[in-house]
Amino acid sequence: MASISTQSLDFTVTHRGNSYPVSLCPDATVDQLQSTLEELTSVPRANQKLLYKGKKSALREGDALAAAGFKTGLKVQMLGSTAEELGEMKQVEGEHQRRERIMKERALKPQAKVRSTASPSSSAALQFRFHEIVPLPHLPSPESARALLARLASDPAIVHVMQQHRFAVGTLTELAPHEQPHLLGLNVNAGQAIKLRLRTDAYDGFRTYKEVRRVLCHELTHNVWGDHDNNFKELNSQLNREVAGFERSAAEGAHQLRSSTGAYEPLEADAHMGHVLGGSSTGAAQDSREERRRRMLEATMSRLRREEEELEQSCGTAGPAADQQS
Question: What whole-number distance in Å separates Cα of residue 309 and Cα of residue 303?
Answer without folding.
Answer: 10
